[in-house]
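Quarterly update from the structural biology core.
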Amino acid sequence: MKAIRIREFGGPEKLVLEEIPDLKPGAGEVVVDVHAAGVNPVDYYIATGTYPLKPNLPYTPGLDGAGIVRNVGTGVTNVKPGDRVYLAFSISGTYAQQTLAKASNIHRLAAAASFAQGAAMGVPYATAYRALFQRAHAMPGETVLVHGASGGVGTAALQLAHAHGLTVIGTASTDRGRQLVLANGAHHVLDHSTADMAEQLARITGGAGVNLILEMLANKNLAKDLTMLSKRGRVVVIGSRGPIEIDPRNIMGRDGAIFGMSLFNATEQELATIHAALVAGLETGVLKPVIDEEIPLAEARRAHEAIMAPGTSGKIVLKVA
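Predicted structure, tokenized:
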């Protein structure tokens, strides 16, 4: 089978298409014929060697994907060959024609969902769900600000928050991005590049501030985020590309809280809860992943360049089959 392999850490130029042996499942494992593989910023960071998680070289990147079950190992009862599925976490990597995963990380894919949409579930939707409900304990009636709401995690957070009865405010820096934010569940949209965004937010909330902020670029926004929170407001840091200086008084006076999060820290039970909700959301049509671009597997280098470029609108996936 064909697979993208990384033999030394570095930039997109280190992603090479190679021929490797087919996969075989062990006990409790499943092999999936991959039709679409999700591309995420964390894939880029891992590939550069700058992420705390460093796989043994050589390796195939990719954590999430979707396709058809090829075969299963002993003891697997939740899926069978021929089933349409998406997967969240892969043992062997998803930038390949086949991938190996634990059976517990394989989930049925709704008939109405495309494989590209299935490839958006494992990281973006699970991250958004964990941030909203497992870290910040968002409640119906609260107000949430989603920074960078036009990306894969952002659009997922908009749909989930709207469906759970929150008042949703999203930010994006382009006209296209702001239109996408409104189309995916935001009640209000702001341009986070404008100098008066905080004043606009204050008008929307009647001066009370927002109960919850999902922050995709904490090294740029966290200090200002703390000034926009309501009493007992919470910020969940989903992404950051460096350090930032904050004034703790801005959170002390509000009895506020800053939560960090990593999907890798979720327990098996937390992941099971997340995906039970996501599977149901896909089946009912409440969740509709937005696909920005489908890039051929052989052009994985271009996908890694695109995922780090500003202005992404939705999810980038690799088209494998």
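Residues 268-284 form the longest helix (17 residues).
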